[in-house]
Batch of 3 targets.
Target 1
Amino acid sequence: MSNTTTTVAIDRETQLIALFNFLIQINSQCLDCFIFIIGNIGAVLTCIVFYQPAFRKSPCAMYFIASSIAQLFIFNCATFIRMIQYGYSVPVNSVPSWFCKIRFYIFYSSTVIARYNIIFASADRYACSSSDVRLRRWSSPKIAFRLIIINIIIWLLFYIQILITIDVKNNKCRINDVTISTYFYLYFLIENGIFPIVLLLFFGFRTIRNIHRSKQRILPNVINERSETMTIPGRLSRKETQLHKMLINQVIIYMILNIPYTVYSVYRTYFGLSSLTGSYALMDTFLNNLFFDLVYLVYALTFLNFILTSNIFRQKFKEIIQIKILRRRIVPTN
């Protein structure tokens, strides 16, 4: 009887191992591949559209361009490697130690640079929509350029620690010191999951409140709806209004797709799931990969969000297609 029970348990364990290996592989081949292709194309197109004269001098557009450039490193140094590792069984950890260090250094630094540029864009929309003249002065191309440079320098210097702490051991690229690994994991959980969501919620609600208040003001002046400049203090132009919508949608996508990984990471840390073995370890790997891919998906959906949200963005994208690809001349309409 005991032998039969043991055999059934072994067969069940074997089936679960095969199932989760299959799910891990399919997830990487499909979702990671989608993120890699759509993300790279979208990031390049986002940079091209926002570099057009209609957006070029907008601080919010500058933050989006900086974030998109950082996202290219995420897609090519993180998503691509994850795809070939789990989807096509390429032994990416059987490489020299320096490759392991550089890969994770680029991943962590580019992820946080992309994330904080979105946070800066959210803060810029809050300042831009404010009726306070002093606060609106913070929404300027000069300040945006300085913050982008400072953001890059700070995080490139901060994550130099990755070059020291991460190494290859037993064909795994990880932080081998348990104490350092625990503290770093908790830090990353807070900095990557909880802290950005709090900031984005804060600036998002403040921006919505500012816009709501601005709509309640009675303005006797007639405003040209097609104007792309702010003609009355506290009143947003059509372009600025659409930038608000684009960012608010991006913030919503960010929170929806980041919350699963944040929640699972807390659960994983609390119950010590990283020490699991057998099919349970594979189940943990599958869920961890899936939820982490949702974080990548946030950035991959950026261009699709912008193209669906903003009429001006769509219009400029169509103009680029017509002029640069189809070689057609745009005839201005009166």
Target 2
Amino acid sequence: MHQSGRSETTSRQEIVYLIPQFCTPYPIPFSLFTETACFMPILIQTLYHRLCTIEIQQSLKLLDYSTPALFQTALTSAGAQCHQDYERLEFLGDSFLKMYLSLHLFTLNPTRDEGWLSRSRVLLERNKNLLKMSIHNKLPNVLLCEPISRKTWLLPTGTPQTQHVSDKSAADLVESIVGACVVSTGVVGGGKAVRVFFGDEFEESLTAYSFRIESIRLKANMLGSSMINQNSNQNHQLLRDQLFKKLGYRFNDNNLAVEALAHVSAIHIYGIPYCFQRLEFLGDSVLGYLIAKMLFCLPELHKPGKLSSLKSELVNNQFLAIVTFKLGLHKLLLHATPGLAHSLAEFGNQISIFKQSKATDTQKPLFWHSLPSAPKVAGDILESIIGAVFLDSGCDVQVTEHLIQRVLVQPWKSHF
């Protein structure tokens, strides 16, 4: 740049000669070099770690499903003392993984009961299994797990060397990467990450699972239609209409609506071939993921411990039972067990007595913990309905999230 301030355009072949007499010197103080030199190790380490994580991201074929910055965060531990670490992503990824595994098992095993499905999911998501995946993909090698020391820091050379990482931390990396993909590209990215780690037997999208479930249910409905008489059909239609009034969601499949409200004791009594246990298994994981997602997106950016605590309060049986009674869903439960009817009625009486004697206490946070323990079935009803809505909507997480916001979050957020 000449003193005149005029810019000159030159082609690449031309050579520009600067005449010293017409140039202005801009001296750089030596102190600037000494001050910035202190930050060079941090800058170089951050850049080196970014390049290493991009290599891992490329090897996993996840470049299109997570931003490089988030993927780097997914491979940064709290021990590195950086401004961000993987723990929040791991919280979200854990919930998404649980939902995806539940849906996979639910779809591929249409005749298995809730107990078998739960045990199978535990085997898939246990740390021992995730640890194998993490080591196989060399994730612990690129984990940034220690703070930088300017006294002992050396310029990194070559590929990352094997380092000691606890089994728990190594296993968490799989969930944090799943979480990074969910944040970047939603359920599409999360599904892709699950398939990368767990294998091609897993579908890459929720839509693919929805098609498979629809096909299975269509065959089951055709076989079961001959068992259902006209009176049962009318009762099922009435039940669907009542659910619409209470939830604001109208089921496309009457059988799903009825199944969501059918206790195991009601099988073959009300013209129902299934009970709600399988839907409760699925709904529990869907609810867990969507609550985790809502909490993760809060502007307060809560720490993982706070997120886990809030999620626990929002999905525990005591709170879900209160919501069930508030909506009157317990009155729609189909069952043939006198003892169950008595326990539900007794809990309802306890709620009424509590409201009358301690009216102001019902406005306090978490007031439901002052009540006797709710029957487990009371919370299961709401989870099974959430699972049914999820399937009925074609595994649409947005539709299911709107339902949860409408009946579970917005009316009760002042109590947390």
Target 3
Amino acid sequence: MSLVDPTSDTTPFFSDEAEGEGSAEKDEGPSPRQEEDSPSGLSFWRAHLTVGVLCYINLLNYMDRFTVAGVLPDIEHFFNISDGKSGLLQTVFICSYMFLAPVFGYLGDRYNRKIIMCVGIGFWSVVTLASSFIGKDYFWALLLTRGLVGVGEASYSTIAPTIIADLFVKEKRTKMLSVFYFAIPVGSGLGYIVGSAVDNTAKDWHWALRVTPALGLIAVLLLVGVVKEPKRGAIEARPEHTLQRTSWLTDMKALCKNHSFVLSTFGFTAVAFVTGSLALWAPAFLFRAAVFTGEKQPCVVGPCDTSDSLYFGIITCVTGVLGVAMGVGVSQMLRKKTPRADPLVCAAGLLLAAPFLYLSIVFAQKSTVATYFFIFFGEMFLSMNWAIVADILLYVVVPTRRSTAEAFQIVLSHLLGDAGSPYLIGVLSDSLKQADSYMWQFRSLQLSLLLCSFVAVGGGAFFLATALFIEKDRKNAENYVPSGPVTLKGTQKANTTPKTILP
């Protein structure tokens, strides 16, 4: 097999052929192992175990990401920093993650995805552990390590959904993606819960950052022992042609012409903006609201009261599971009536979340119970689109461009979304603060967070626009035929099928 063969369904180097998955180029009769395997090259049980490992790592990634938010009051007190600098902790991480995503997207479309993930997650675990030993005079070092954590997450998030796409199709793929994306809210919630619990037990927030590195080592071992590289696009390839890899520039031009992909990415950007803002600031906001109403005492000497992080984490876990399940369930029911079901459900989720988030912020000064009630429903509706957005990308983009598309979506959604939103909310809070008092610490952050509701409405509008193009773009992807000669059983043959040169 040529290292530069553009029609090969296997990876150019670091191939998993030695792992016994077989080559698509062999004309030998099928062995008993090959007969029980799917076209992806993995057996039924191997495919489901692979999804299980990927879900575990996805949960771990988000757990680590939001552990910092769970102990943010202690970090602010430890380093004596303003809201603006606190927001930088999330912004630096997201920026690193965002700019590295295209690199790993390019590599993921061309090289062995399993090895890329192993290296990235191992590096992420080491850096996260190093961040837990930083002293109070070295806030810049904490920012640096949080930025480096983005390397590991970028290596994983751009690649894992494409592996699932190469294992399952249609409704089965949607179900597997919904399981995979359950890990986002559950992992986020566990970040708050574990962070606050370890902080309270150890009386030192540094210990909260030492939990996920140990779990990361287990993740690498599971990747090595369980996960195998599936054949790209084989499970959905038609017998009349095989898929060809094209240049990165050609991929990007095709993606930019894909209306459904671009519009859904802008809609997802609004989701990222809102979730990024709430993820970092919601526990701190709830704590300041309790101080403002006299329910809690201010944090003068650490460790601070992190019970709000615990409660918010539980809400995030529960609403995430309910939201993802509700989004997938409603989408599958509506698909029987309209092919535009997916973007319409995403739009409905954001438009329903907006008023509940607005009310949760407004009622914080009057009723803690009402605040948690509205947060519950706001987060549940916001979580409806996680699995659906990923599924939209996978069925409007051809297999050989999916990692690049994942990377592009990550860059754009984070660049305009949660890369800047935590820092923006913090800066707005500092600028609106008219006095150095507990009342203005609460009030300024409250006014800043109201921005999230309006961004959610804008995101809903983008998903409504996606519904106008989704049917055409899906058909284009399903009927895609690469230009030029294609390889059929080792022979070169001119392609006479009418071509749809679209993503």
